[in-house]
Design brief:
Largest sheet: 11 strands, mixed
Distance between the termini: 12 Å
CATH superfamily of the largest domain: Alanine racemase
CATH topology of the largest domain: TIM Barrel
Radius of gyration: 24 Å
Shape: elongated
Structural class: alpha/beta
Helix content: 25-40%
Bound molecules: pyridoxal-5'-phosphate
Strand content: 15-25%
Number of helices: 11
CATH class of the largest domain: Alpha Beta
Length: 383
């Protein structure tokens, strides 16, 4: 359980760099989303190491909050959670291969059935093992990723009715554009999903207990897509899925990333900094070195644009970002060895560097900034 004030990875004391995960903020975000979507329930999405926040600790925290379901992308992620003692129902959202099915059943993981063939494989494996498989049917309404196409979904829904060893607990779809400014495409997908669900009405059958479609964009912008359950990922971690999305729910970033100054020097004009000698000053400057680089998942592509916070001020990272280090130009300000460097986060006075900014500097999206922070960076849980 994560109710101590601080849980430190032992490595944290050895390396002056860590990502701090604020569990109080995570709780607040969870509750804000829960309130906004009620009576729909939450399935927090914990794929990709819980968007970089740490799969197992985040799952334990969600379980403590009483979450009814968890979502991950891959079988292995589900197994890791079971091995960590998580008993909450877990839906594995991704596509499955036949020989994985027994492992799902063994670990009581809910399967995504995305075609007639897949649900028949699941049913056969469940029969052989003498168990009932928990299944959610996946309908492709316009993402063209996995799932039976909406226009031929009846074949899968009928096959599901024939399966004797599956409990079809859910049915779901996924938006391609729910975080956009214009929602025509998302609304079309929603209509297609609703049309698929009419299958049950036409046969006077109850639909599966859990109908779900909304990712963070849908949670924020399409209340009609909330159905019985919503699947927020990035929003839960306090980051909005796009710049355009309406911020109808207020959330706070959960992750911050800190390091410390390990070296201070004065650099003369005309003396270029770092590989490739891409940057030099035309006057004397103070430059500090920070022991973080692209080997930790800080994008090298942000070279020339990135900024960090030292002593409450934003300063530019200069020269190429290296694998393990980066250099910061503090002009003629003061900084000392061991001073805190904020790569992501905000100071008490409100000076911030956001995940969104790093995404822009690196030509990517906030999702990738978070999932890119790798395991060399210890996670420290506070609150
Ligand atoms: C990743 C994912 C989500 C969560 O998406 P966010 O945009 O992070 O909210 C929901 N559903 C599925 C199927 C996903 O793959």
């Amino acid at each position: 359980m994560l109710n101590e004030a601080t849980i430190c990875d032992t490595a944290e004391t050895l390396r002056p760099t860590h990502a701090e995960i604020n569990l109080a903020r995570l709780t607040a975000n969870y509750r804000a989303i829960e309130t906004a979507v009620a009576p729909a329930q939450l399935m927090p999405i914990l794929k990709a190491n819980a968007y970089g926040h740490g799969l197992v600790p985040i799952a334990h925290h969600m379980a403590q909050l009483g979450t009814p379901y968890l979502g991950v992308a891959f079988l292995e992620e589900g197994i890791l959670l079971r091995q960590a003692g998580i008993t909450t129902p877990i839906l594995v959202l991704g596509g499955i291969i036949g020989n994985q099915v027994p492992h799902f059943l063994k670990h009581d993981l809910t399967l995504t059935a995305s075609s007639v063939e897949k649900i028949e494989q699941i049913d056969a494996a469940a029969q052989q093992m003498g168990v009932t498989a928990k299944v959610h049917l996946k309908i492709d309404t316009g993402m063209e990723r996995i799932g039976v196409h909406y226009y031929s979904a009846d074949t899968l829904l009928e096959a599901a009715l024939r399966c004797r060893h599956c409990q079809v607990e859910g049915i779901f779809s996924h938006f391609a554009n729910a975080d956009a400014a214009h929602l025509d495409s998302a609304r079309l997908q929603l209509e297609r999903f609703e049309e698929v669900l009419h299958f049950y009405e036409r046969r006077s059958l109850p639909p599966p207990r859990l109908r779900h479609m909304a990712n963070s964009g849908g949670v924020l912008q399409l209340p009609a897509s909330h159905f019985d359950m919503v699947r927020p990922g990035i929003l839960l971690y306090g980051v909005y899925p796009s710049a355009e999305v309406s911020r109808t729910i207020e959330v706070q970033p959960v992750l911050s990333w800190q390091s410390r100054v390990v070296y201070f020097k004065v650099v003369k004009p005309g003396h270029p900094v770092s590989y490739g000698s891409t940057w030099q000053s035309d006057h004397m400057v103070r430059v500090v070195t920070v022991p973080v680089g692209y080997g930790d998942g800080y994008f090298r592509r942000a070279s020339g644009q990135a900024q960090v916070i030292i002593r409450g001020q934003r300063y530019p990272v200069v020269g190429r970002i290296c694998m393990d280090q980066m250099m910061v130009n503090i002009e003629w300000d003061s900084a000392y060895n061991n001073d805190e460097v904020l790569l992501i986060g905000e100071t008490a006075e409100g000076t911030a560097v956001t995940v969104e900014e790093i995404a822009e500097w690196a030509g990517t999206i906030p999702y990738e900034v978070l999932t890119n922070i790798n395991t060399r960076v210890p996670r420290v849980y506070v609150g």
